[in-house]
UniProtKB/TrEMBL annotation:
Positions bearing the site annotation: Essential for prephenate dehydratase activity: T188
A cellular-component GO term for this protein: cytoplasm
Species this chain originates from: Microcella frigidaquae
Top-level lineage group: Bacteria
EC code: 4.2.1.51
UniProt keyword annotations, A-Z: Amino-acid biosynthesis, Aromatic amino acid biosynthesis, Lyase, Phenylalanine biosynthesis
Organism classification: Bacteria, Bacillati, Actinomycetota, Actinomycetes, Micrococcales
Catalytic reaction annotation: prephenate + H(+) = 3-phenylpyruvate + CO2 + H2O
Protein's name according to its UniProt entry: Prephenate dehydratase
Pfam families assigned to the protein according to its UniProt record, in alphabetical order: ACT, PDT
Pathway annotation: Amino-acid biosynthesis; L-phenylalanine biosynthesis; phenylpyruvate from prephenate: step 1/1
Alphabetized GO MF terms: prephenate dehydratase activity
Residue ranges of domain ACT in the record: 210-288
GO biological process, one term: L-phenylalanine biosynthetic process
Every Prephenate dehydratase domain range: 15-195
Length: 322
């Protein structure tokens, strides 16, 4: 399929993979990418398939969910980024998680006895469902779009479905209720992943994503890793552990840093981490979706690091110290 805009000869050869079909939250995130307008949008069934498209060169990039404000990191995405080489994050996008209850035309809320829903979406709308439909049944669906589409199939057991807001613009369904999620502030964070080695220029409102392992399980190793950032004034906006899988008790850490690899403090922290960790994966530096400028304490500004290097260089070369 193509994006909502008309394709052009220059863009039609570019393909973007996303968790489909049309209407998913991933589809909404891809709609925020200016370069994807008019290009081919390729729906896939899972994160692995999306990243395989990128690695194989079938797609220029893939949009994948990496974190949810309610449920935390997406483990499938974190594990894939840790084990599939050659991938870089080049952009970040936020999508509000807003659910509606939809039904075929002519069905009213009073007609609803069974609701189709993806299990995660169902859990996030549980309080509303118990209040509005206290005796309803639940039919699990494979995705947030598969649920409403099942209503259009002959012999559907469900009379209504939980779906992303806006799904009625794509399919012949009516909204029975909007904003039914239990958390009105729920947001999912998506990242655009490609094979490009080019690092987006720093904007002052950037994020750097890495994955690192501890050298061993000796006492204090985690503290040593964290000190690589703390002593350089680098804030971590996310840190989550994931099992490496080769033995019990072995974990890797998925980390997001405030700042860009071209920031002196971030670059110095990564050098320190690389000396400490047996395996560091640089996933990319890219603009933050919220465009929030990173505040840096003066003692960790770029000039402090460059002045310190100049001072050491003068000592080593026998020049007068500045």
């Amino acid at each position: 399929m193509t994006s909502p805009a008309a394709a052009t000869p220059e863009s039609s050869a570019r393909r973007y993979s996303y968790l489909g079909p049309a209407g998913t939250f991933t589809w909404q995130a891809l709609g925020q990418v200016p370069e994807a307008v008019g290009a081919e949008w390729h729906p896939v069934s899972n994160v692995g398939e999306a990243l395989d498209d990128v690695v194989a060169g079938r797609s220029v990039a893939a949009m994948i969910a990496v974190e949810n404000s309610v449920e935390g990191g997406v483990s499938a995405t974190q594990d894939a980024l840790a084990t599939i080489p050659g991938l870089r994050i080049i952009g970040e996008y936020l999508v509000p998680v807003t659910f509606s209850l939809v039904a075929p035309r002519g069905v009213t809320l009073g007609d609803v006895r069974v609701v189709a829903a993806h299990p995660v979406a169902y859990a996030q709308c549980r309080r509303w469902l118990e209040s509005a439909l206290p005796t309803h049944g639940h039919v699990p669906a494979a995705s947030n779009v598969a649920a409403p589409l099942s209503l259009l199939e002959p012999g559907s057991v469900a009379q209504a479905a939980i779906a992303p807001a806006g799904i009625t613009t794509l399919h012949d369904l009516d909204e029975l209720a909007t904003g039914i999620g239990d958390n009105a502030n729920a947001v999912t964070r998506f990242v655009l992943v490609s094979r490009s080695r080019a690092i987006p220029p720093r904007t002052g409102a950037d994020k750097t994503s890495i994955i690192a392992e501890l050298p061993d399980d000796a006492p204090g190793r985690l503290l040593e890793m964290l000190e690589q950032f703390a002593t350089r004034g680098v804030n971590m906006s996310l840190i989550e552990s994931r099992p490496i899988g080769d033995a019990l008790g072995r974990y890797r850490f998925v980390i997001d840093l405030d700042g860009h690899v071209h920031d002196e403090r971030v670059a110095d922290a990564l050098l320190g981490l690389r000396r400490f960790s047996p395996n560091v994966i640089f996933l990319g530096s890219y603009p933050r979706a919220d465009a929030r400028q990173i505040e840096v304490v003066s003692q960790y500004g770029d000039d402090v690091f460059t002045d310190a290097r100049d001072w050491l260089r003068a000592i080593l070369s026998g020049e007068p110290e500045g």
